[in-house]
Amino acid sequence: MLIEQEFRKIFGASPEVVVRAPGRVNLIGEHTDYNQGFVLPAAIDRYCWYAGRRRPGTEVHVYSVDFQKRAQFDLSRIERDGIDHWSDYLRGVSKLIQETGASLSGAEIVLGGDVPREAGLSSSAAVEIGASAFWKKLINLDADPVSLAKLAQAAENDFMGIPCGIMDQFVSALGRKDHALFLDCRDLHYRHVPLGANAKIVVCNSGVKRTLAQSEYEIRTQQCAEAVRRLRSAGVAANSLRDVSIEDLNRSKHALDDVLLRRARHVVTENNRVLDAVKALQEGDPNHFGKLMNQSHASLRDDYQVSCLELDTLVELAQKQPGVFGARMTGAGFGGCTVNLVRQEAAGAFADAVRDGYRKALGIEAEIYTFQASDGAMAAL
Ligand code: GLA
């Protein structure tokens, strides 16, 4: 294993523990998780890897293969690093595990991986879940994957200061090979749904870094909360947009301005699309699943307004190709990737045509991946 070799190179010994945690692609259910709604992501066969062993004392020495840098912190006072942000995910997760009462040991750690960064494929969730899986294995932590997912989300929210829902961490911890994961973000009930054998998940990276994503994401969360407040004062019994039906919305839309109505309409209709999509998947109906993906994109573009020219271009090109069931932006938006459901035998020609079309339209070279749905975090040694 590559990460083991790296560990030996850096620390001159074999690791005690090797774990991996996957990135994710969301098939449908966008901007619904923080509204207590439904999502349908899949873990992908790109991973963040950790190799490590105990060392005496309370210091953690860590090396990043990707950044070719070392960092060091003491478990007795964990703070964010002003410079080496890549180590902050490990710091945050370590801090929160200790706050549960568990005592960690000093460690030597090497981490690295192949989840594309800043592409909307949750490389940060993979780093967080990888960190929690690493400690679980190293110190025999008695924690189930759901609590590790919650802890990793809390690390991102409270330690890193980045607002996000639970979707990414949850699927990185609990994904299953060849399955999508249907999750109810209100009570965290989940179910694995088999992905049909003859449709491929093809992901196109727009190459646009998501600079606007964080500030716009925060604005969207506030707008959703405000929409709920106003709907409640108009008499709708709702704790979140999850509780609002399309009939409620139509009846009480006078309580919302145009922007809030659009935001709410996206969330309400997207939740319904996820439920329909799960049904379509179970019934082996990729055509219907694809239609829902197309509708999801239109709703994210027009109502939630989180798409951009590059994502729209990729989606329009994709929807014209033979053998395509559906295409949409995936993740928070404002750059990153699109996800496409493509008939197995058409996947190669699809990738070539979209790459060509994108280059011609915008002069950008798109990276295109064909992912296999994979298992969530696991120990490899
Ligand atoms: C980011 C967040 C997720 C989710 C998506 C949008 O990936 O981390 O929690 O909100 O955006 O669906």
Topology:
Layout: H1 2-11, E1 17-28, E2 38-54, E3 59-64, E4 69-74, H2 88-99, E5 107-113, H3 123-139, H4 145-159, H5 167-174, E6 179-184, E7 190-194, E8 199-205, H6 213-233, H7 246-252, H8 258-282, H9 286-302, H10 309-319, E9 324-330, E10 337-343, H11 347-362, E11 367-371, E12 378-379
Parallel strand pairs: 3-5
Antiparallel strand pairs: 1-2, 1-12, 2-5, 2-6, 3-4, 6-7, 8-10, 8-11, 9-10
Alpha-D-galactopyranose (GLA) binds at residues 30-31, 33-34, 164-165, 167-168, 331-332.
Protein described:
The chain has 381 residues and is an alpha+beta fold. The chain has eleven helices and twelve strands. Helix 3 (123-139) crosses helix 5 and helix 4 packs antiparallel against helix 5 (167-174). Bound molecules: alpha-D-galactopyranose.
In short:
With 381 residues, this protein is α+β, with helices and mostly antiparallel strands. Helices cover 42% and strands 23% of the residues.
